[in-house]
User: What shape does this take?
Amino acid sequence: MSDIQQPAQTLPPNAPSGPPLPRSTKKEGKPASLWSDAWHDLRRRPIFIVSAILIAVLVVMALWPSLFTAIDPNDPRTCELATARQGPSGGHIFGRDNLGCDVYARSIYGAANSLLIGISTTLATSLIGGMFGLAAGYFGGVTDTLASRLTEIFFAIPSILGALLIAATFRGGPLSSITLVIIALTVLGWPMTYRIMRAAVITAKSQDFVVAAKALGAGHMRIMMRHLLPNALAPVIVIATINLGGFIAAEAALSFLGVGVTSPDISWGLMISDARNRFLDAPLPLIFPAVFLSITVLAFIMLGDAVRDALDPKLR
Amino acid sequence: MGRYIIRRLIQAIPVLLGATLLIFAIVFALPGDPVAALAGEKRTDPTIVAILRERYHLNDPLLLQYWYYISGVIFRGDFGVTFADVPVSQLMAGKFQVTLNLALTALVFEAIIGVGLGLWAALRRGRAADTMILASTLLLISVPTLVTGFVLQLVLGVKVKQWTGVDIFPIAGISNGFRSYLLPGFVLAGISIAYLTRLTRTSLVETLRADYIRTATAKGLSRRRVIGRHGLRNALIPLVTYLGADLGNLMGGAVITETIFNLPGIGNQLFQSVYLREQPVVVGIVTVLVLIYIVANLVVDMMYAVLDPRIRYE
Assistant: This one.
């Protein structure tokens, strides 16, 4: 418990009035940039260390699941219907699910799809939202008005229902179920990044170095890429990290509703959905993937909290 | 104020039209023929199919179909009919009632627990209670509704009934009236409780550092009065607006909770209608949700002016 209590002191609500956090000790003559300052700050935060370790384990789990379990859940021969819902035992530490498959092995193999969908959606929303936000914030005027009205439309649609609708509509088409989930979540998710990016760009735009670059004859592209983007990136990274956990939870929700990842692909949401019918008399096949899911989301949200505290000097 | 409201309402029109058109276009792309779906397993007579397609404008292009639909909604309040020939508005009324009850229960939990915990944390800032509350908000934000729903259903619903013999928290359906909504309402509120706790804490900590709080303390008011009348009242402004805007989020996000607890709400209905390709129901539900979102945000913006006299809208 102390692992969790400790980092909580670094949560943002504490920041305005909390004890002063250790600032980086700059080396002589070399001013620390925001990034090195943030990195220096991050390394000392227990909340960051805990979440980084958890995420590292999850990434290894996603890339080489066979390191964690000798059973390959993609091989149907490892399932025995006769042993369905059997409790934990030596060879099957989490017991077996409704089809007699090993819950532990399936939970381990489920990490890959969750991370794949979470990370791809985050990259896609950051790219699309970031690009539109950069252009809207920089050009202003009609571009800004159009893009902003467009995002208002997406904000007005409840995201989980919108994603459900998109995923359900285009199921069975040429796209794999995983790609479809990424697209559905991206379509509903990018306006958030757009808003953050646009606000950050508008703040950066009026600063002297941008005016100077313009006076020196820099083109639109150069100003946006070389001057605005690096200065507006921090809040986008923060929101991206926090959203990543949310996208993983959303994937589980869609898979649970039957419009996300489909069998034979493995997903925690799908496992929860499969175990649901017998949940009240055999809760374990549902509980274990639920624990994996919660810890993964927790790890990314903790990371997001830590990164925000490190990157947002205003909150210090 | 009046002019401000009118301007906001005019601004809401493109959002409403854009969102409904978007949903309409997606539903338009739903695979399968609605007339074939209407017929179910039976073979369909081509003449009848042709008549039905003509009657429901299914041969017209997307934009024209959209116009028929949206003009019906706007000018006649007509959301179309379901496959069973029930008016969609009638179907939705019952479903929205369930989801509204659920969302309002969640909102009450949110307000009581969120503000309570936030207040407690703010007053014990930096101490054990504060740290504990902040750590639990992090947990609450991280555990998906999917997980809290099933776990609470098992622990508070089933186990409590087994141990005490009394069915305190019904775990499915709405047949127990108000009590049916307690457990799902709490589950739905979960993440919002955590955000509201953090918001209350930040807001109150900020307010308690203001000059007028020092003045109030200096003139000898009791701590209770300083915090209650001067601190909390001012700290309340962002909270009320958060709660107002959250009503729309809760209603739109209730589908998981409704599925877990078998509540016949709009999330559940939308889900079923997507599978049945009941296009008017899908578009109707999303249209009403978008309207709720727009109105809730407008009300929230106006509440700013009511709660904080310094804010004036032109």
